[in-house]
Every structure is written in C-alpha cells, then in structure tokens.
Amino acid sequence: MTRSVAAEPTPMRTTARSRPVDTGSLCLDLVATRTPGGPDLLTATAGAAAWLGTFDLPTPAAGLTSRDLDRIQELRAAVDRLVQARLAGTGPDPEDVGHLNTCAAAPTPTSFLRGDAWARIEVPQPDLAGVLSVLARDAVHLLTTSEPSRLRSCEGCGLAFYDRSPSGGRRWCSMKRCGERTASANYRRRHADADNGGAPDGQPTHASSQQFG
C-alpha cells in the first residue's frame, strides 16, 4: 500500500535546503518563492522545475508549460491570501477556498520502493495537477490542524512562517536574512544615540551645550 506525501496530519516539515528562508511548511515555502525585495522563483519554467526538484516534487512527463506556471502562481496567490486572512483573524475568501479545494482534490504523485535496491521508482505524472494537490493539501493542514499561535509573520519583512522551534519564540523568517539585518540596524541606532549624547535627532544635550554668563 502506498502512502501519499500529503497525508501528514500536520503541515509538512521542510528540512534545511538551499533557499533564503525556512518557513517550516511546504505550502509556505511556495509562498516564499516570491520574497519582499527578492526574485520571483516561479517566473520561468526552468526556475519552477528547479524549485519543485528542491522538494523532490515531480514535473510533468512532457515538461512544464507556460500554463503550468500560471497554475502554480495562482495557487501561490490563493495560499498567500488565505494565510494572511488566518493571521489577521478574518474569514477566508470563498473563491480562494474553492480554488484550494479544487487543487487538493486531485490524486497526489505516487512512488514505489524498488525490490532490488534502496531506491524508489517514480510514476510519471501526466500534468501538474498531482503536485498542486500536494501543495494544496499541505495548506489545508496548515490552516486547520496546526497550532494557530505558531503561524506568524516575520517581524522584519512580513513573510509568513510556521514556528517549529522548541521554545516557540521565533520572530524571523531567517536569522541571517531578517534577524541579523534588524540586529545590525538596532546596533547602529544605539551607537548613533550614544554619539549624540542620547538626544533624539542629533540635537545636543543640555550638558554638552555652551553656557554663557
């Protein structure tokens, strides 16, 4: 009996890979293919195929098409809006829900274990529907079965992530991307205040001003 990769009871854990952020969830990694101030990884078929390969998600047997790019971008936009609504504590948009559910309804890709080696056999996918189903089902799990308080927005750039840290106190999409950037900005601000004698906007303090009799 085969087991679908989308049958997890919680959002799929994504391990450290070569990407700018670790969102903690596959569907949020989809949203993070377009980061604030960064490149969009899904604007070309080659980039989309490379991103899918990062997560061992198959591409269609005939290769990705421009329509496939539109479909994955449409799902990304719907997931992004639904996540933002969840973070804001508002209700979901029915059109986004319908789109997500339609994508989730398709059968997910299947792979088998070979009988003569520790390797798997991939079943060719006729189109992108199976991969979109994996991503959509993960979004359903994230939005309904995860711990709501651990779904957060990065305090630096606003990118959504799912906090899997033991303490539950994560604040950044990535410490290197936003955490260190914010820490550096705070450090410069503190030193600028110290250089100004603690006065705002560079104004001299009373102690440093000249007194005339």
From TrEMBL:
<dbReference type="InterPro" id="IPR023286">
    <property type="entry name" value="ABATE_dom_sf"/>
</dbReference>
<dbReference type="InterPro" id="IPR010852">
    <property type="entry name" value="ABATE"/>
</dbReference>
<feature type="region of interest" description="Disordered">
    <location>
        <begin position="187"/>
        <end position="213"/>
    </location>
</feature>
<feature type="region of interest" description="Disordered">
    <location>
        <begin position="1"/>
        <end position="20"/>
    </location>
</feature>
<dbReference type="Pfam" id="PF07336">
    <property type="entry name" value="ABATE"/>
</dbReference>
<feature type="domain" description="Zinc finger CGNR">
    <location>
        <begin position="150"/>
        <end position="191"/>
    </location>
</feature>
<protein>
    <submittedName>
        <fullName>Putative Zn-ribbon protein</fullName>
    </submittedName>
</protein>
<dbReference type="InterPro" id="IPR021005">
    <property type="entry name" value="Znf_CGNR"/>
</dbReference>
<dbReference type="Pfam" id="PF11706">
    <property type="entry name" value="zf-CGNR"/>
</dbReference>
